[in-house]
Every structure is written in structure tokens, then in C-alpha cells.
Amino acid sequence: MDGVLDGSPLKGVAYMSKQEPVASAAGQCLRHEVEPLISLHLFPSFPARCNLKEKSHSVMLSLIPVILLILSWTYETAASPTANWRILRRADPGSSIILQIGLNVPDVQATLEQVAFDIAEPTHSRFREHLTAVELKDALQAPQASMLRVLGWVSKAGIRIASTRGHVVEASMTIGQAEELLSTSYYVYSDGSREVIRTEAYRIPHRLQEHVRFVTPTTSFPLPRKQLGTVSRTVGRRASSGRGTCGSGDDTTPACIRQIYNINHTAQPNRTTFAVYATEAASYSSSDTRQFLKKYNPSAANANAAFGIVGSGDSSEGWPGIAGAFETHLDTQTALGLAWPASGILYNLGGVFGSNAGVTYDPFVQFLQDLIHNDTVPSVVSFSEGMPEDEMDSNYARSLCSMMAQVGARGVTLLFSSGDNGPHGDQPEGVHAAVFQPYFPASCPFVTSVGGTANMANETAATQQTITGLISKLPYTASGGGFSNLFERPSYQDTAIEPYVSEQIPASYHSKSGFNSLGRGIPDVSAFSTNFPVVWAGIAVPIGGTSASTPLWAAIVTLLNDYEASKGRPPLGFINPWLYSLGDGALKDITTGGNNAGACYLLTGCTLKETLGYNVTAGWDPVTGLGSPVFSALTKALDEEAAERR
């Protein structure tokens, strides 16, 4: 059924013959040599119709079998991968793959999202009454009709069902079976340094379109590795000063963070657990961790023994590259150095946007399912990975966000870095061209997005004006932020964000691609993101980016959870509504730093033709969010809040 126009297949187009397209995913009639013969509503969301052309009765009758065949299929497509991904070859049909099929249960998901909001809302009667795994499992019961249809579809193809958890069905099969099931072809793609197995389009039976929301791994591609280093900003700035002071240009050490953010609490062993979710190209060194702790937090020198590791990461590569190595070292050392002796876990599963050629399943979906269904879960998880929203399949992204709402309802705080090139991505043209490119998962309203600041002597936003040094400026240009195009602004943000949108947004921005003043605003909060000393291969190297501020905030929340546990109170869980309800003083408002327009350098592969940014102002702004933590004020707010609820 695939047609070819000018030598290229048109995705989302149904064909009456090899050169007669009927309807396109853009909802347009396409002409090529002949007129379309008939109008077909193959896609419920496509409003456009093709004009009928009068034909004889016999011709129309002869088309009935073709029409019935076309109507038996519906297309699920995504934007094409970025230009960095190239097809190498067809995937081996005999190799294994695990497909994860997400059920489309909008009513159940909407109910659970509202439950997550209720549990997180300080004025609600259910505030912080987190759900157990059993309670959430009961709430996640999918409609029997949807489950049976999907199970029947898969089983009829002779494929083994691996598991059913909540709204996700996992099925083990060969690539060949997956291709037959989805009427597609899988290919091996490369970004020049590693390979992934993907397809750019797939089909499911028409009768199942109302029951299936996504199938993965299929059309969502990882961030190309040369961009991964750009997003994570894991590049050293300069040699460590070694002065042991906490001024401008000094190392952002655990001691300085405690001093400046007024952290007056130390966790107790085995009372609270935090986690770091590794990027898809990760490595971890216990000896480097031990050396870091010995130098910067001597009392925690043996803490790495309590840092559990789950998974083996990217099994297709023996060497993760500098970005992947620095990234995991930065995340784990920052969080553990500050939160010790709380217990730490490193989830080295393959990243948010896997899978690699050697990991043919979606590790992030599996991880979220574990957090939803396991009895014991960490109270905080830090993520330093993201991707421009417009490179994500929207149904897949929304499904992930709904899962993250369920995780929040379990009492788990999810924190994501907001990015490090201001409000931009780095694709100047083609299908992903946009001036403003907000990053997902940071844009999901059920996670906490973390921006960056600079200068310990006088904290300012991390922007082109405040990040000093040529080497530093090449990879790290500005704290990421902006407004989502996938998720509308949640009500908990209205009071904080509306003044900025109405008073600070230039009128010209409304006509720029990717700008959406009604979208969910990011980031929510911020923290120091420059000059973090990280021990890598035995050497202390200063590193920066929101990949530093995010585990810093994860450590802050871990310590707050430990404080709450010491009072017999539950963990914070999904914290955004609480953060936006806090009065003056609980967070330090960052008001200086200028404009967060990103920049383009050949080193990062960025060739944007237009870079615009947002100004740092009093109150919430899309550079630093609500501001940085004042720990003693946050614990005071928790105590006052608990007293009011007695």
C-alpha cells in the first residue's frame, strides 16, 4: 500500500495505486500525474477532503476491495528524524525486540492526572496522601474491551505477551514479527557514533485506533549524540581554583552550596532514598566518586558503598564518550556529595530516549512502569536529558507525561534539566525548524523543570552575559526555558506566569515559530549551574550546565524529605503546586542576568539563523523560574503548613 511520489514515500498518505494518493497526514489532496479518485476519511483528525471525480459505476465497484483494504488500516506517524540520523541498513528480521503498546484510556488518565494534582495541592483535603502501588494498580484498571482487543491483536499474530502493567502491554518478538504486526519496516539508523533501530511510520488496524495511543520503540528517535553533549553541557570551564572559598569564580562545592543556600539539615542513614537516571551513554566510577567525596565531603568518603546501581546502560558500546562519562559523574557526585548519608541509586538503563541497537526496548517506559507498580520507590529522581518537543511524537510524549503524573501520585519527585541553549534547539531548517524549541520531558506539567544560575558571590541567571570564559561559552550559552507547545499552562502557574506574559513578552514574538504564550512555562526553579568540580579519571574538572543544577535540586528535595521523615510526615512527591504556593522568602528571586538568548557554535553543531531570548525579571521568568532554594525557609514553610493542618 505504500506509494512513492518523485521517488520518495509520502508518510501518512493512502494510495489507490502506486501514484494516486488519496489523503495525506496534512489533510491535503496531493496531485501527481492523475487526480485522486475518491475521498476517504482514513484519519479522524484530518478535516480536508479531496474532490470527487465522476467515474463510471463499474469503476467505483472495482474499487470496493481496495477501499475496504485501506479502511482496515490507519497510520501512526511522527516527524522525520533530524538530519543527523541516517539509514544504514534494514534491521535484522531475526533479532529480538520488545514492543510496548500504550492503551488509549483518556478518561482513566484524566482522572489519575486530577488525583495527582489533588494530592499535590496544599489546600486540598488529600494533600500528600500518596497512593500505594496497590491503590494505583486498582485505579489503573483499563477498560476490558481495550485490553482484550489489543491482546487479541498481538496473540493472533503468534506473538508472546510478556506482561500487562496498567495501561502498557509488553510483547516479545522478532523484528520480522514486529514489521508484520505494524505493517512497517525497521531500519538501523546512525548519528555517526552509535546506532538505533527505528521506523519512521507504522500502521495499526483501523478497529484498534481508538484503543492504542502509542507503540514503542518505533518513531521516536534519541537525541543525536553530538547534540547530547550540547544539551547536557558537560564541558569543563577552567582549572579548579582550589581556594576553598565561595566567591565569584570559585568552585561550586557541597560546602559552598550548603553555605549559600542555608542548608542546616543532615540526612540520617537509610531514611530517604534518591535516584539519578543516567543518560543513554553513561559510565560510573566508584573510585572517582570516592575521590570526590574524600576531597569535598570527607565525612562521606565511603558513601559510594551505599550507591546502588540498577542496569548496565548502553550494552552496544564499550565507551560512552566524554559527554556520557562526564554526565553521570556530574549527576551522581553532585547529588551524593550534598544529600549523604541518604541512600543513592543510579538507574543505568539506557537513557530517556533509548533504545540503542543492543537495547531493543524502551527503557524509559519500563522505568516509569517500575515506579508506578513497585512497592518500594525512591523519593526523588534526577534526570539530565531532554529533547525538543517538536522532535517527539505528541501522543507518545503525552502518554509519558501521564505516566509521570502517576509517579508523582506515588510520592516521587521527578526533576528534569531545562536545557542550556536558552529557549532554542539547534535545527535551523527542515521539518524541525523553529525559533523557540521547548524541551521535553521538562515541559510536562507533572515534573519539576530546573534552570541555571551563576556567580556564587551574587547569584544571577546563567546567560551569555554572566557565563564567562571562551571554553565555557562554547557549549553552555544560557539557562533553558520558554513555553510548551504540547502542554497547556497548568492552573498552579497562572498567578505567577500571567504577569510575565502580559508585560514582558515582545509583541514580535507572537509571530515567531514555536512560541506559545498559553503553554506550560519552564523552568519552575533554578540553582547554581556553573563551575562544579567533578572527579573524572582521577582528575578534578570543573563542569557546568543545568545537568548540575538538577541533581543539586534533587539533593535539596532529598534533604527536605528526610526532614519531613524526621517529623513523621510523608515525602513531598509532585512539588510544583506547593512551590508556586510559597510566600516570599522561601525561594530566592533571581532578577539579574539579562536575556537568555542562546548561541550557535560549530563545536555544538548549532547553526540557528535566529536566536531570541527572554529577559530575567522580578517574579517568575522563563530563565530562572521562581528562583533558587533557601533551605531553612523551605523547612519553616513545611512546619507552618503542618501546624495549620493539625
From TrEMBL:
InterPro entries hit by this protein: Peptidase_S8/S53_dom_sf, Peptidase_S8_Ser-AS, S53_propep, Sedolisin_dom, Tripeptidyl-peptidase_I
Going by the entry's taxonomy, the superkingdom of the source organism is recorded as: Eukaryota
Query: What positions belong to coiled-coil segments?
Result: none
Task: Write down how the cofactor binds this protein.
Answer: Binds 1 Ca(2+) ion per subunit.
Q: Name one GO biological process term.
A: proteolysis
Stored SUPFAM superfamilies: Protease propeptides/inhibitors (SSF54897), Subtilisin-like (SSF52743)
One Pfam family cited in the UniProt record for this chain: Pro-kuma_activ
UniProt keyword list: Calcium, Hydrolase, Metal-binding, Protease, Serine protease, Zymogen
**Would the keyword Ligase be found if you checked this record's keyword annotation?**
no
GO molecular function terms attached to this record: metal ion binding; serine-type endopeptidase activity; tripeptidyl-peptidase activity
Keyword hit for Ligase? no
Q: Which residues form the active site?
A: E327, D331, S547
Where Ca(2+) is bound, by residue? D589, I590, G619, D621
Under the cellular component aspect of Gene Ontology, which terms does the record hold? extracellular region
Report the protein name in the record: Peptidase S53 domain-containing protein
| Organism this protein belongs to | Oleoguttula mirabilis
Biological classification of the source: Eukaryota, Fungi, Dikarya, Ascomycota, Pezizomycotina
